[in-house]
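pinning this so it doesn't scroll away 📌
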Amino acid sequence: MLKNTLKSCMEGNTLSEKQAEEVMNEIMNGHATSSQIASLLTLLRFRGETVDEMTGFARSMRAHSLQIETDDLSVVDTCGTGGDDLKTFNVSTACAIVLSGLGVAVAKHGNRAVSSKSGSADVLEELQIPIQHNQQEARQSLIDVKLCFLFAPLYHQSMKHAVAPRKEIGFRTIFNLLGPLTNPANAKHQLIGVYDRAFAKKMAETISRLGTERTLLVTGGEGLDELSITTESFVIEVNGTTQNMYTIAPEDVGLNRGKLEEIQVNTPAESATLIRKILKGEANASATGIVLLNTAAALYAAKRVPSIQEGVIKVQEAIQSGQIYRHYLTLQEARQHA
C-alpha cells in the first residue's frame, strides 16, 4: 500500500482523509519500512501537508493510543509543537502547573527534548513532579492534584515504528503538528503553541474537524510557539467549528513588553530554576509576564474567565498570594507518596 501511496504523492497527488487514515494505520501497525516512512514524511513536508492528511493521520493516531478516562472533568492541555529554536524555558509546562493550582484539570501531553533545550518531561524531573503514570495513576492524579503528565512514548506506543526514520531525517515533520492534536485524555480545551502561522491555520481547521470546545492556537511574532511577551502574537480561536483570528500584544492585557534574553535557558535545570522563581513570585518581569499571559489564555480556552485580560489578573493574584507555590509543593509531595 505504501508503495502506491508514495508513487501517487510523487506525481503530485494528495491523500483524502480516509486514505491518510489508512496510511497511518499501516505505519502504526508496523507494516511500513523505515525507508517508506522517511520518504512519505519528506514528500509531505516538501509539498506541504493538507488538512485532509493531518485529520486522517490524527484520527489513526488517536485510535492507536492509550486513552485516559476523564469522566465529567473539563480537561485542558497546554501542549505545543515546539521547534521554534528560541531556547525559551518551558513556558507551557509552567502554565500547566499554575492552571492546576487554580483548580483546572490539566492533562499535560509532552515528551523529552527533541528540538528544544528542555522538554516538558525533562523539566518536570528537575522540578521533582511525577512524569510517568499508567492510565489509572494519571486519572487519579487528575482527580487528586488536577495535573497529570502524559508522556507521549508511553501513550503512543505504536509511534515506535516512526521513531528511527524521524530521527534520521532530522527535520520537522507532520508528526510535530500531530502531537498537540492527539491528547490521550481527549482534552476539549487547549492552548496550542505553533511556531508558524501557516501551520497554525492548518491545525485550527484540523482540530475543528476532530472536535473541540475551545482551543487557542498561538504564534508569537518572533516565531515563538507561545504567546509572546516581547511582541504581538497571532491567535486563532476555535470554538467548535467556528474560527476567529486576531492579534494580541502584552499591553492589550495590562502587561509590559519583556526581553527575549530574560526567558532563555540552556538546560532543563536552568528552566526549572526559573519556573520555581515564577511560582514563588520572585522571577524577572519577562518570565513572570509570559506565564501570566499564556496561563490566562489557557484559562480563557477552558472557559474559566470571560477574557484573557481578566485571566491575567486572576493568575497574578494567585501567584502573589502564595497559592500557586503551595500547590507546587503539594505536587512534589504527591511524588514522594507515589
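📌 and the second one:
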Amino acid sequence: MATLNKVTLIGYLGHDPEMRSTAAGDAVAHLAVATTETWKDKSSGEKKEATEWHRVVLYRKLAEIAGQYLKKGSLVYLEGRLQTRKWTGKDDIDRYTTEIIADDMRMLGARPAASDASNEDNAPAAPQHARQPQARYEYEDDAIPF
C-alpha cells in the first residue's frame, strides 16, 4: 500500500522569515506559522481557542521569494511534507526537530501598500503563488507562476 506525507497549512507568520544560505549558496528561509482553532465549550458556553505553532522551511527560489515578500503577520498558504531531523545540542544530547519542508507557497491577503505614489509605478508586483520545482538542482531562473 502506498504512503503519503503531505501537509497543508493556512496561517500567519509569527516573525519575519529567517534567511540563511547552504554551503552550496542556496537560499533557506525558516518560518514560524501560527494556526488557530476556535470552538465553543459545551459545559460553560464560552468561546475557546488554541494556537499551534509550526516550523516551516523553504529552499532556493521559494526561500528568496519568502524573504523578499513575507513579513511578520503575513497570511500564507503552504503545502509540503513533514521531516524530522536529529541534531546534537551544546550539551551533547541528541535532539529532534520536526519541520514542514514546503514546496508550494501562496501569499494570501492584500498586497502591501507602497510608501508613496512614485514607488507604486516602479515597484515589482509580489508573486501571489510560488511552487518549488520537484527536481532539487535543475532549477535555475525559470519563471515563477504568479
